[in-house]
Amino acid sequence: SPLLEVRGLTASVKETGQQILAGVDLTIREGEIHAIMGKNGSGKSTLTKVLVGHPHYEVTGGTILFKGEDLVDMEPEDKSLAGLFMSFQAPIEIPGVSNFDFLLMAVNARREKCGLPALGPLEFYSVVSPKVDALKMDPKFLDRNVNEGFSGGERKRNEILQLSVIGADLALLDEIDSGLDVDALEDVANAVNGLLTPQNSVLMITHYQRLLDLIKPSYVHIMENGKIIKTGDSSIATQINEGGFKSIALV
Ligand code: ADP
Ligand code: MG
Ligand code: MG
């Protein structure tokens, strides 16, 4: 079965009942890179949040299967242990817990789930340190408390650091290019490309073709009004770059 199979997914804002996702169909197989593009407000971020089970949204219809298992009722922690990754959007700083400790906990939780022995701090340091270097992050970053004073660029790099140490079968990357200069974007793209294997997949959301020049998608989807209205290869991204979303014929 595909890694992710979304059928007729509808979802609303829990508090108001306002429908955002209006019937999303999406199939992602092992080893594929998918990109979702679309105007502001088309529902791209909501789709990724609904996939990971963000508490602000309610699934009102359709199905989400991850590795053949129903994802809708699964706890967010279990989704992550099963190999679905989205950057931890921990909204608060966690006093006394460093980024290092936080990453080590997350890695060991997933290792335990996979039947692997826990890593000790020294062992983990030798794993994480080269990754911090590759992302051109300040090594002091690991000692800082979770989420303490992250800049936009640090947040994006941290997202990819999390992914590269924890690993995932499917990574959901929402606008990893936002707020990054060209050099930073290249570091982040190289890190993502370095993680790709024939087994794992990426779903990335972006407004810009420049990310897709660095991480080559197998499929590009266009989202509008809470639905995927067109799917094609990377030439769609080129077309949008040159003529805007209006240049995409819907059929
Ligand atoms: P995109 O990521 O494509 O820019 P979003 O998924 O963030 O779009 O938002 C889609 C639409 O749903 C927007 O009109 C947005 O204002 C609305 N929306 C998303 N989440 C909420 C929410 N929690 N409460 C109210 N409106 C929301
Ligand atoms: Mg937006
Ligand atoms: Mg968004």
Automatic annotation (TrEMBL):
Keywords: ATP-binding, Nucleotide-binding. The keyword ATP-binding applies. It comes from the Eukaryota. GO terms for molecular function: ATP binding. Residues 4-250 form the ABC transporter domain. This is ABC transporter domain-containing protein. It comes from Urochloa decumbens. The lineage of its organism: Eukaryota, Viridiplantae, Streptophyta, Embryophyta, Tracheophyta. The chain holds residues 55 to 305 of 305 of the full protein.
